[in-house]
Amino acid sequence: MGGGAAGFFAAIHAAETGRKVWLLEKSARTLSKVIISGGGRCNVTHDCRSPAALAACYPRGGAFLKPRFKRWGVEETIHWFESRGVPLKTESDGRMFPQSDQSEHIAMALENAARANGVSVRTKHGVAKIEKTAKGFTVHLDNEQVINAARVIVAPGGLPKLSQYAFLELSGHAIVPPLPSIFTFHTGGPALHALSGLSLSEVTLRAEGQKQTFGGPMLITHWGLSGPAVLRCSAWMARELAASGYRFNLYARLLPLSEVEFRDWLELAIREHPKRRCHNQVPHGIPARFWAYLLEGIEISETITLAELGKKHKNRLVETVLNHRFAVEGKSAFKEEFVTAGGFALDDLQPGTMESRHWPGLYFAGEVLDIDGITGGFNFQAAWTTAYFAGTEAAASLL
Ligand SMILES: Cc1cc2nc3c(=O)[nH]c(=O)nc-3n(C[C@H](O)[C@H](O)[C@H](O)COP(=O)(O)OP(=O)(O)OC[C@H]3O[C@@H](n4cnc5c(N)ncnc54)[C@H](O)[C@@H]3O)c2cc1C
Q: Phi and psi (nearest 5°) for 346?
């Protein structure tokens, strides 16, 4: 069930054993997300070969995936695509793409392997309901057709609404409420938005009331904030931020300095350049226009010199640079890339096989599970890994 990355990968591995496999896709075309992913380049995995380090990139599901990565991890993914004529390349941040920068080549490798192994791909075959029978399963389609199957692999991708899980309502599977992960923050007014395109290289973010912090570059956008630190924060805090209605205070340390280090920097500048205007004393790592925005926010006008900074000004500077408050008032998708956190609960699966504990013979793979990764190729890697197990184990159980 599902003609995406996980559905194809599972179908291929099941069909390689010689079993008859049908791949049922509800829409008119398969692999749509693969095609649009990574800005049309498909960030197929991440160059992170250690199972433990890889598992640490999943806000939900990492502990479940870690032992699975030992059998199907990044190396296996690279080998699978490269041995099918799609060499991969690694970018400086570890993201891996097809050398051609064309997601179609990833889709073609999957389609060719499915065809070569005799998978029957059926588009416009939406699954409405799955029922357990004495011999296996009855799959009811949207068009009222019925298919009997000895085994079923469930891979319909992230389902954002609880009602979309009804196709398995008789199975007793628990559903962890779905909600979005990987998004950007709406904050600030016209003065901040006018700085769209500027970035800070090393910020540390923390949502109010939370202990966890998230470091990395941050980008100012037309609507607020984006960039790796923001995306990480949104993924790891997906549940907490949803509970706040996406309205919360975000505190940012804008420079990688302690208060003592920042005050030392300021005092040195005052001693060395007393007549210099504060607006011209830009700390390394903060763009000049953003520095001016910060100073205006604490009423240090363009004419004030370093020597004229009083104690109050200095304290405000420390606060605005090391504990800057952004009032977040909403969210939006990052380059249309979003992932569903939540889904079918992992406790209901046999971890070694991806088989249901409730309905033996029913398997799960991909984003429909309560597994999601941060941005960087981790979500596809979870799809390849879970689908490899679901496909091989579903077929092996028939031997
Ligand atoms: C714009 C965008 C860009 C992304 N880029 C990246 C990236 O570069 N790297 C990365 O790692 N991740 C990326 N992701 C996330 C990644 O695409 C998903 O995690 C991944 O596609 C999940 O694979 P899947 O097979 O589980 O689900 P999907 O790819 O969503 O496939 C599920 C398929 O099942 C079908 N289906 C649904 N319901 C039914 C039904 N009832 N009956 C039959 N078929 C059904 C759907 O139509 C769909 O074709 C991106 C996501 C988006 C939205």
A: -70, -25
Give me 214's structure tokens.
Answer: 């998230």
Which residue puts its alpha carbon closest to atom 27 of ligand 1?
Answer: 157
Nearest CA to ligand 1 atom 11: 377
Residues 335-363 have a mean pLDDT of: 93
Which residues, in sequence order, are CB contacts of 69 under 8 Å at separation 6+?
A: 51, 54, 55, 385
337 pLDDT above the threshold of 90: no
Residue 91 CA to residue 47 CA, distance in Å, equals 9
Q: In this predicted structure, what is the pLDDT of residue 336?
A: 67
* Ligand 1 center from residue 106 Cα (angstroms): 14
Total length of the chain: 399
pLDDT (tens digit, 9 = 90+) per residue, 76-122? 999 999 999 999 999 999 999 999 999 999 999 999 999 999 999 99
Domains and CATH numbers, the chain: 5-179+339-396 (3.50.50.60), 183-333 (no CATH)
Q: Whose CA is nearest to atom 21 of ligand 1?
A: 33
* Residue 159 alpha carbon to ligand 1 centre in Å: 10
Distance between CA 79 and CA 85 in Å, rounded? 10
Q: What is the pTM of this model?
A: 0.94
Q: Which of 111, 91, 3 is nearest to 43 (CA)?
A: 91
Q: Which residues line ligand 1 (CB under 6 A)?
A: 1-7, 24-27, 32-33, 36-38, 42-43, 126-127, 155-157, 336-339, 366-367, 377-380, 383
Please give the Cα distance from 121 to 11 (Å, whole number).
10
